[in-house]
Design brief:
32% of the residues lie in helices and 26% in strands. It is α+β, with helices and mostly antiparallel strands. The longest helix has 28 residues. The structure holds pyridoxal-5'-phosphate (PLP).
């Protein structure tokens, strides 16, 4: 059981990485960025966020992330402060600024872009006050992908009740449910917490969950009880292209426990095999407790999609010159 804390910078403000960020129209050092204590994101968690992977300076599935950002804002009745083109321009500007810092430290160019929009600043009142100026914040961090050992051996997960609210489809910054959920797996030395509402699978603390049964990839329906990860569409596309049967339907606890393969997906995990659930090996026969063949095909397809997106961006750039 590993209990190591993730490699994050904690502590006082001067210890924050010397990286640029974007706050309300300005690129500024992360350690100097300040918002009001009356910001509703701080007071109520009244805001939304997005996490967009950028490989080698190219934003991966940017339009899909923007579509989800637009849906989340609309649910919260927060006006979208930027057009898609403006979001893209700001993200690219920030990626370039952060890449300069990373490359001067000898690090590669893969990054995670974090975008947050809160309703803005107002005297404390629960009502969704109209007419406020949304607070827009964006920062980059170096992408940490799963390790070679996690890919070859798979990861451990534990199960827990999904005690979050019934608007899990909104990518909201009110994340205390996810914090509690992730802590359950951390305390157990596992990577993720696979959650159930009653007898039915929902998702993990910060990932979607996929079950493989008799060669078919199963995911839960895209409803208000789960966040539709951007990898939902990707996994469906990859299955279609590879001729792997794919279905979204309710999945019982017994089906998860008896799965042939289990996988997680998220921007930073991509697709990742789960080989132990609540201490029990996942799968059957010779494949028990090992990453399975469907995972291997999806992981390879994912890497191809990343490479193709970088090639397409390079070709577009060349065409524009
Ligand atoms: C609750 C939850 N479900 C699913 C996901 C996966 O979403 P995506 O594939 O867009 O990263 C996340 C990502 O953070 C999440 O927080």
């Amino acid at each position: 059981m590993t209990h190591s804390l993730p490699n994050v910078t904690v502590g006082t403000l001067p210890d924050l990485p010397d990286l640029p960020c974007y706050l309300n129209g300005e690129i500024t050092p992360l350690k100097d960025a300040k918002i009001s204590v009356l910001d509703r994101g701080f007071i109520f968690g009244d805001g939304i966020y997005e996490v967009v992977p950028g490989y080698g300076g190219v934003l991966f599935r940017f339009d899909e992330h923007m579509a989800r950002l637009e849906r989340s804002l609309a649910e919260l009745r927060i006006p979208n402060p930027l057009t898609r083109a403006e979001w893209h321009a700001v993200a690219m500007q920030l990626i370039a600024a952060c890449a300069r810092v990373h490359s001067s430290a000898g690090q590669n160019g893969d990054q995670i872009i974090y975008i947050q929009v809160s309703r803005g600043v107002a005297l404390r009142d629960h009502i969704m006050l109209p007419g406020l100026r949304p607070t827009v914040f964006m920062m980059c961090s170096r992408m940490t992908l799963p390790s070679a050992a996690q890919r070859s051996e798979g990861v451990a997960c534990v199960t827990a009740d999904d005690f979050r609210w019934e608007k899990a489809h909104i990518k909201s910054t009110s994340l205390l449910g996810a914090v509690f959920s992730r802590q359950i797996s951390f305390d157990a030395g596992a990577l993720e917490t696979v959650m159930f509402r009653g007898d039915y699978l929902s998702e993990a603390a910060a990932s979607n969950v996929w079950v493989v049964k008799a060669g078919e990839v199963l995911g839960v329906p895209k409803d208000q009880l789960v966040l539709e990860g951007i990898r939902y569409g990707l996994i469906e596309e990859m299955c279609q292209a590879a001729g792997i049967p794919f279905a979204l339907r309710r999945i019982t606890r017994a089906e998860v426990q008896q799965a042939d393969e289990l996988m997680l997906s998220s921007a930073s995990k991509e697709v990742l095999p789960v080989t132990t659930l609540d201490g029990q090996p996942v799968g059957h026969g010779a494949g028990r407790g090992k990453p399975g063949p469907v995972y291997a095909r999806l992981y390879a397809a994912y890497q191809q999609l990343k490479a193709r997106s970088a090639q397409a961006a390079a070709a577009e750039l060349e065409g524009a010159q």
